[in-house]
Write a structure and sequence with these properties.
mainly beta; 52% strand; seven-stranded mixed β-sheet; four-stranded antiparallel β-sheet; 120 residues
Length: 120
Amino acid sequence: QVQLVESGGGLVQAGGSLRLSCAASGGTFSSYALGWFRQAPGKEREFVAQISWNSGRTNYADSVKGRFTISRDNAKNTVYLQMNSLKPEDTAVYYCAAPRPYTYYPYNYWGQGTQVTVSS
């Protein structure tokens, strides 16, 4: 129903910043909550951040709170993840995802992922 494509990943030194983008198509973007997840090598996928479809309410994993900011631009059908003060443990494939409209769970739609590598 909705297609998601991440971009913006890359290699950055510890303490640096990256901004990930996720472009959506094929649905009514403003009706979807959006989330960011990540999966590091040898580890399970974990939740990173979520933003609501209407009010802009956000939730963050404790590990990224204060460093990462999720935002969305409904006019551009895009959700962002601004990542500051990056740490080597942030290295992972980052995915954006969406549940069905006006819901928060489960996340049914996933992008292909973008690699973020933080060097020390």
